[in-house]
């Protein structure tokens, strides 16, 4: 039913995990063979040219991130794969690791070669036990086949990969907190600078990339940057993206779609339209920390820049759709409660500020709010955004900010009626 | 002119009548002091102890340095004044101590008869101040 | 260097500085809460947010952001003030406002910030916590309701102290700081968390409700315990030391203290302090007036001098000025029998170093230690004898990736540090390992041999000390030993640490010489930044050596004096600030000396076991009651200042010694410490360059930061074979105590109230011993009973007992040997 070229999901079969043999049949590990003949620098340049942007939410260009890495520095260097997928509404990495873990391993070997990393860690969410086992099995297979370990494919390059099961907290998705967690410490984010590329895991240079980002690498090597760019429907975008659909849709599964696909197509064609034939009200375009999109944005191409222009972000492309019967204040309150609970308690605005926003929304949702509370809410959004230590609190303010911007009337209705109008 | 003198004298004579005197027959008669009169201090009692928590703000602010506080820990682990003394010979009744008190444990009463025969009697201990 | 503009002012700072540091440089104070000078940047409280022209759009934390060229910083604007107000509001949401009963009130950072940024009303109905306070231990009280989660306690305990007793637990609004499993605090109680807590969440319990900060008079002095020479700021109220105040502005210790410095002051206020002179009349010590006591003492001493002579034995807690007066007194009496603290133990410095390097002191300073690449610590006890130097080592490792090598017979705090390499040897074999390391350097051609004397003889003497031989003998891995030697030689800056003191008397001179040999071969002495540190266990051990409180000419040393007295060959003993019966090796010998000697004078704070046997006892003053100078283990001369008056009629040692000298006919008198200090300069050239009044808050280091050796002489030393038995007992210092004075201090006593014998789990299991059981330890023909302490620090067959508790009688067993062969039974 998917008319678009499948890259990451090309081997995906329902309920099955690709083995090494079938992975190799569809061109698996060809990218690695090719990459090992290139110089690390050439790979970096190639990835830079491909325009691949981080798929974990922030969308930082991967090639540029790699170019900051001191690959020539002596001593240990690490590549860490961030698979702590805990953003509400996001489950793409699980789908990927369920279907095709070798893609990640091949990507990690290539990336490690490009960065001259000596060891790689795959940091997985605690709930992804099945994925962890898949990856472990794939690592064993790859090792046996000589794609991992000492002297990979006779190139002299050595790499060991380790799977780490997270203790499981949202904050672990923040790269420096993840590094602390990996070291066995409390996952508070670390002060930057020094950036992980200078002083990361165990004090050594470390590069942290998302699962999907790394999975893309072998395909870029295989088919070249131009092919990758042309996958996207927008001119500046490149590659495909895993869209995890959820919410009030008729079909809530994960699709691989090109970047730049209009939101309407995602919702109507792939999501099968809104449940019970209701109307589209809003959606979170990329996980819980992205500002809402409304019906007026339905024709927007789903890519990094167009969404940023309307004040939102593509994030992880975990699209959560809300129908017309949803109270957006309640939705936002629920999200903020999640963020307040998941705050690591490190910095003041996040630790003490988020509960306050949550109280305010609680008050408004229960009809106990007044117009001062609206002003206060707006002020708190300002006071928290950009003031916290890491991006968690800022992300938490995304939905609140867009609630104030897009659903002002709904907020006012709560206050005027003295109760939630959707009750 | 006569009229004016008569008017003036009438006021004078009026004061001679009983009940029109401004002099109070102290000590048989005592004036009710204004609410904001700053007389003898009083430590305000709470349920089972003094309200004072021995924060040392009154001796700190006291310009005459007449207040002595020594804090200690009671059985409940609370801070309380083991010693609280005011030397009334030094006190200038400025009321800063009352103003400084963060827990309203100290107030100034309307008691103004503070004369005594012995110097020691001017030292008001916690027990005396709590009365 | 980097140039930037802060609030319109041009600043030039080093490129490692943060915006906060740079602002401070030009006197602009950015408000902070979680920032602490000696901790790594953290950036959690968000008070220090500033605007940076180049990073528009968001506010930048000043305390974590390094400066960059051309930065334009604005530290106050309407927006910034608003943010700070909000942060304040956030913090006050769950902060209990119990300032009136909070001991921090008046010096609380949150209070100060609330005055500046706080609003009177709070727009949020906050949830105040009602967490129970942690009052289980007697020294540190934690009230987590007042906590602002700045993490300073967590960080200092980890980054500086290396203990790590705190961590954050829970998440979000419920986040709090707790110990493991949220139990009561049970740590080494150095009180660093107390010092750094910006609010009243962690407070010193002995000071609870005692006074308000503004009532306290602060007196900067030097800690009277170990040779570290930490600045302690006495908090004095009504002529009593109520607390030790945090002060990281001055001193060599950067505000760091151990339990002794922080909570060990209480002995000064102790009820049992001597307040009047005592003279023995009809077998009883009775209180008399000063004049009578002095008269009796003077007569006794001069009679003895006319007989077989007087021996003077001094502790190492006198000031330099008092040592000078003591030397004068010895001259007046006419005796050469003058020695200090233990006699044997400091020979590493006075003889070992003197023969090899021609100096009698450590060659580096403590601050240099932090930038060393390789640090070799001999004995794991170094952290116990000099805890604050241990903290410097910890920072060298954590901040500057130094490699620590510990040559030790037991594990300890040092061996637990990150990447610490422990060469765990059989007890008593440290010297062999040092020799083997020297041999490795020579054999592998890594040694710096230019200008070394006696090289050939030294090489020949080392022939037996091949790494393999030594490895077999000591149980240390030969490759690790070789690699450690190579690391030491290859380092740009390196340090060797060795502590000495009463419990470490065996082969003191030889061990120091072996360390000096190794240092010479590794090129350490005289190289800037490197150093060989021989650190005395008492506050002024170094001063005693500098001043020459040592046997002159044919004079007898401490041990010989005591032996002579015991044999009736000495007629009087004058013991100052020392309790030899409790602390010196071989108690029988000391007791016999005190019993047999015709006349004895003891001068001390307490009626010690030694004082009880004396004919005259003088009540002396503690370090907090006198003026003068101490010289610490790195040659730093620091001012000791009087904080309180002595109790009763007690006098300073200097005053007593002067009075006694006057009675003996010496009319020399000085107008004060400054005059004596000037006089010292005439005898000790190294002190001549300093003026007493010009000794600043950091003290002055004689001989410069790096003391140049005057000779480079290799001295062959060989190891003694320690006695062999199933169980070996070693003695040493415990972290909580120092000498025998701290057993009168309530703080250290609260944590370690009595003597114990420590043994490893393996031995405990074999003997069927549990923690707290009474153990019989027998050796040298003596049996004593000690409580057992079981942990995993000691290897099989090794027992450890601290020497501080005289009443335990450990020194009946211990006679100054490296290892005592003992038998153990339940």
What does this structure look like?
The complex is a heterotrimer of chains A (423), B (131) and C (826). Chain A has helices spanning 20-25, 30-37, 40-50, 62-67, 92-99, 101-115, 129-144, 175-182, 211-231, 263-270, 304-309, 328-342, 348-365, 371-384, 391-406, 408-417, and strands spanning 78-83, 119-124, 160-165, 206-210, 240-247, 254-258, 261-262, 280-284, 293-294, 301-302, 318-323. Chain A is an alpha/beta fold and 423 residues long. The longest helix of chain A has 21 residues, at 211-231. The longest helix of chain B has 15 residues, at 2-16. The radius of gyration of chain B is 22 Å and the shape is elongated. The relative contact order of chain B is 0.20. Chain C has 826 residues and is of the alpha/beta class. Chain C has a seven-stranded mixed sheet, with helices on both faces. In chain C, strands 28-32-29-31-30-33 form a six-stranded mixed beta barrel. In chain C, strands 2-1-5-3-4 form a five-stranded mixed sheet, sandwiched between helices. In chain C, strand 15 (310-314), helix 8 and strand 16 form a beta-alpha-beta unit. Chain C is globular. Chains in contact: A-C, B-C. At the B-C interface, strand 2 of B face loops of C.
Features:
heterotrimer; B: 131 residues; alpha+beta; Alpha-Beta Plaits; 5 strands; elongated; C: 826 residues; alpha/beta; Rossmann fold; six-stranded mixed barrel; 33 strands; 30% helix; globular
Summarize the main sheet of chain C. Answer: 7 strands, mixed
Low-confidence stretches of chain A: none
Most extensive interface: pair and counts?
A-C, 31 and 37 residues
**What is the distance, rounded to the nearest whole angstrom, between the alpha carbons of the first and last residues of chain A?**
38 Å
Shape of chain A: globular
What amount of the residues of chain C lies in strands?
A: 15-25%
In short:
The complex is a heterotrimer of chains A (423), B (131) and C (826). With 423 residues, chain A is α/β, with parallel strands linked by helices. Chain A is 44% helix and 13% strand.
């Amino acid at each position: 039913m998917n008319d678009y070229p499948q890259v990451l999901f090309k081997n995906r079969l329902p309920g099955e995990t690709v083995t090494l043999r079938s992975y190799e049949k569809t061109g698996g590990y060809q990218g690695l063979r090719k990459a090992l003949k290139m110089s690390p620098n050439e790979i970096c340049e190639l990835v830079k040219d491909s325009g691949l942007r981080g798929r974990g939410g922030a969308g930082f260009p991967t090639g540029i991130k790699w170019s900051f890495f001191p690959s020539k520095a002596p001593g240990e260097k690490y590549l860490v794969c961030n698979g702590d997928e805990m953003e509400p509404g996001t489950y793409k990495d699980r789908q990927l690791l369920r279907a095709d873990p070798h893609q990640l391993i091949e990507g990690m070997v290539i990336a490690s070669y490009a960065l001259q990393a000596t060891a790689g860690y795959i940091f997985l969410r605690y709930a992804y036990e099945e994925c962890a086992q898949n990856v472990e099995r794939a690592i064993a297979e790859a090792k046996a086949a000589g794609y991992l370990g000492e002297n990979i494919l006779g190139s002299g390059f050595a790499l060991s990969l380790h799977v780490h099961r997270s203790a499981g907290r949202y904050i672990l998705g923040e790269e420096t907190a993840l590094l602390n967690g990996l070291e066995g410490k409390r996952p508070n984010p670390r002060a930057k600078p020094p950036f992980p590329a200078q002083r990361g895991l165990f004090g050594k240079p470390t590069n942290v990339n998302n699962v999907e980002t790394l999975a893309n690498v072998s395909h870029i090597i295989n088919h070249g940057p131009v092919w990758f760019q042309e996958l996207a429907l927008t001119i500046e975008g490149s590659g495909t993206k895993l869209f995890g659909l959820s919410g009030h849709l008729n079909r809530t599964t994960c699709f691989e779609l090109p970047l730049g696909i209009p939101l309407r197509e995602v919702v109507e064609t792939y999501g099968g339209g809104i449940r019970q034939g209701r109307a589209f009200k809003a959606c979170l375009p990329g996980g819980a920390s992205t500002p809402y999109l409304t019906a007026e944005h339905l024709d927007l191409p789903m890519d990094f820049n167009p969404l940023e222009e309307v004040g939102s972000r593509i994030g992880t492309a975990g699209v959560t759709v809300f129908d017309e019967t949803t109270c957006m204040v309640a939705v936002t309150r629920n999200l903020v409660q999640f963020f307040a609970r998941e705050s690591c308690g490190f910095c003041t605005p996040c630790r003490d500020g988020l509960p306050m926003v949550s109280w305010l929304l609680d008050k408004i949702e229960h009809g106990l709010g007044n117009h001062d509370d609206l002003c206060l809410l707006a002020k708190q959004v300002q006071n928290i955004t950009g003031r916290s230590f890491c991006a968690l609190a800022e992300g938490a303010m995304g939905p609140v900010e867009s609630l104030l911007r897009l659903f002002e009337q709904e907020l006012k209705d709560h206050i005027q009626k003295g109760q939630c109008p959707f009750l | 002119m006569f009229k004016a003198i008569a008017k003036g004298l009438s006021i004078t004579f009026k004061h001679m009548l009983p009940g029109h005197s401004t002099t109070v027959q102290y000590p048989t008669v005592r004036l009710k002091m204004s609410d904001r009169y700053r007389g003898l201090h009083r430590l305000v009692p709470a349920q089972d102890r003094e309200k004072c928590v021995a924060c040392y703000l009154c001796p700190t602010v006291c310009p005459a340095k007449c207040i002595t506080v020594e804090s200690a820990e009671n059985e409940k682990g609370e801070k309380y004044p083991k010693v609280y003394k005011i030397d009334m010979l030094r006190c200038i009744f400025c009321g800063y101590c009352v103003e400084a008190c963060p827990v309203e444990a100290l107030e100034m009463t309307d008691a103004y008869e503070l004369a005594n025969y012995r110097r020691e009697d001017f030292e008001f201990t916690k027990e005396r101040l709590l009365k | 260097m980097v140039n930037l503009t802060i609030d319109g002012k041009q600043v030039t700072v080093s490129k490692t500085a943060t915006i906060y540091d740079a602002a401070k440089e030009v006197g602009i104070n950015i408000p902070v809460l979680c920032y602490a000078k000696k901790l790594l940047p953290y950036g959690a409280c968000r008070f220090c947010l500033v605007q940076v022209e180049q990073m528009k759009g968001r506010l930048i934390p000043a305390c974590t952001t390094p400066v960059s060229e051309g930065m334009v910083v604005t530290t106050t604007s309407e927006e910034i003030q608003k943010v700070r107000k909000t942060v304040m509001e956030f913090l006050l949401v769950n902060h209990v406002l119990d300032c009136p009963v909070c001991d921090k009130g008046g010096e609380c950072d949150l209070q100060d910030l609330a005055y500046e940024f706080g609003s009177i009303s709070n727009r949020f109905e906050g949830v105040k916590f009602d967490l129970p306070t942690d009052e289980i231990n007697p020294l540190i009280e934690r009230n987590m309701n007042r906590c602002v989660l700045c993490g300073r306690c967590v960080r200092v305990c980890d980054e500086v102290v290396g203990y790590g007793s705190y961590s954050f637990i829970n998440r979000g609004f419920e986040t709090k700081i707790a110990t493991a499993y949220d139990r009561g605090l049970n740590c080494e109680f150095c009180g660093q968390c107390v010092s750094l807590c910006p609010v009243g969440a962690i407070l010193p319990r002995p000071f609870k409700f005692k006074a308000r900060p503004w009532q306290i008079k602060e007196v900067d002095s030097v800690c009277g315990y170990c040779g570290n020479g930490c600045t302690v700021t006495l908090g004095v109220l009504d002529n009593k030391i109520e607390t030790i105040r945090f002060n990281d502005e001055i001193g060599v210790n950067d505000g760091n203290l151990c339990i002794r410095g922080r909570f060990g002051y209480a002995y000064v206020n102790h009820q049992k302090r001597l307040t009047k002179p005592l003279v023995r009349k009809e077998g009883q010590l009775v209180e008399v007036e000063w004049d009578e006591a002095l008269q009796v003492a003077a007569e006794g001493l001069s009679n003895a001098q006319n007989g077989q002579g007087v021996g003077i034995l001094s502790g190492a807690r006198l000031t330099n000025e008092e040592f000078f007066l003591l030397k004068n007194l010895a001259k007046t009496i006419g005796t050469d029998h003058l020695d200090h603290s233990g006699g044997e133990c400091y020979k590493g410095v006075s003889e070992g170093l003197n023969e090899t390097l021609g100096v009698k002191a450590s060659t580096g300073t403590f601050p240099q230690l932090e930038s060393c690449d390789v640090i070799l610590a001999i004995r794991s006890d170094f952290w116990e004898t000099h805890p604050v130097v241990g903290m410097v080592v910890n920072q060298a490792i954590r901040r500057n990736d130094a490699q620590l090598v510990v040559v030790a017979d037991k594990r300890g705090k040092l061996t637990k540090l990150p990447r610490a390499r422990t060469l765990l040897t059989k007890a008593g074999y440290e010297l062999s390992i040092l020799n083997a390391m020297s041999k490795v350097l020579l054999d592998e051609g890594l040694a710096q041999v230019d200008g070394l004397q006696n090289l050939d003889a030294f090489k020949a003497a080392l022939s037996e000390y091949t790494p393999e031989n030594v490895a077999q003998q000591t149980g240390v891995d030969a490759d690790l030993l070789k690699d450690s030697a190579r690391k030491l030689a290859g380092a740009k800056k390196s340090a060797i640490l060795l502590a000495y003191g009463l419990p470490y008397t065996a082969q003191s001179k030889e061990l120091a010489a072996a360390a000096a040999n190794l240092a010479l071969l590794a090129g350490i002495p005289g190289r800037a930044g490197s150093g060989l540190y021989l650190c005395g266990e008492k506050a002024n051990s170094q001063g005693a050596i500098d001043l020459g409180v040592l046997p002159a000419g044919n004079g007898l040393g401490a041990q010989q004096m005591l032996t002579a007295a015991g044999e009736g060959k000495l007629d009087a003993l004058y013991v100052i600030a020392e309790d030899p019966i409790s602390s010196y090796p071989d108690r029988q010998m000391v007791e016999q000396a005190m019993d047999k000697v015709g006349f004895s004078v003891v001068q001390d704070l307490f009626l010690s076991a030694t004082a009880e046997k004396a004919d005259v006892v003088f009540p002396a003053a503690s370090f907090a009651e006198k003026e003068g100078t101490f010289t610490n283990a790195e040659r730093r001369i620091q001012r000791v200042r009087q904080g309180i008056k002595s109790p009763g009629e007690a006098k300073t040692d200097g005053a007593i010694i002067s009075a006694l000298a006057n009675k003996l006919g010496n009319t020399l008198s000085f107008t004060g410490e400054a005059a004596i200090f000037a006089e010292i300069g005439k005898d000790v050239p190294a002190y001549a360059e300093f003026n007493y009044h010009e000794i600043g808050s950091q003290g002055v280091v004689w001989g410069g930061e790096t003391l140049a050796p005057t000779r480079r002489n290799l001295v062959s030393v060989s190891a003694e074979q320690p006695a062999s038995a199933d169980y070996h007992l070693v003695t040493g210092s415990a972290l909580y105590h120092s000498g025998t004075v701290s057993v009168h201090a309530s703080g250290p006593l609260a944590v370690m109230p009595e003597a114990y014998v420590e043994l490893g789990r393996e031995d405990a299991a074999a003997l069927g011993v549990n923690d707290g059981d009474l153990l019989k330890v027998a050796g040298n023909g003596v049996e004593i009973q000690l409580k057992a302490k079981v942990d995993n620090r000691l290897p099989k067959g090794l027992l450890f007992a601290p020497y501080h508790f005289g009443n335990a009688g450990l020194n009946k067993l211990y006679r100054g040997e490296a290892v005592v062969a003992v038998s153990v039974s339940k």
